[in-house]
Amino acid sequence: xxxxxxxxxxxxxxxxxxxxxxxxxxxxxxxxxxxxxxxxxxxxxxxxxxxxxxxxxxxxxxxxxxxxxxxxxxxxxxxxxxxxxxxxxxxxxxxxxxxxxxxxxxxxxxxxxxxxxxxxxxxxxxxxxxxxxxxxxxxxxxxxxxxxxxxxxxxxxxxxxx
Length: 162
Description:
With 162 residues, this protein is of the alpha+beta class. It is 22% helix and 34% strand. It has a four-stranded antiparallel β-sheet. The chain is globular, with a radius of gyration of 20 Å.
């Protein structure tokens, strides 16, 4: 068995399903994950939804899918995990996979974080530094210079340095 560095290999992927059948595809996938022992490779199955309220005499709560026909899956892509997801009933394939055995392309953090925030999900990200540490600036106007960490904003994924 191959060992994985979970933080480097784990990513979010978009899976396509028949429009209107997202819940059935999610249920099928969750059952297959459990029955095929893939809990260490496929971690979360998400259908991004938002709640809106409509007033026609009385207030009515309406849950609508943000991306109809799509399911987001937090997983480590191996041949086995890819097979499990791809061959789940009501799943038509991965978005970003060109077919012919090509593995799908994961979402970048800049792409998935706003979607998760819309759904009320926040990611716990640990910084490898703390307030007071001296760090090298890797982007922006002061790239290549050293700076002292003044403030860390985990929610917005920003760091203030002096």
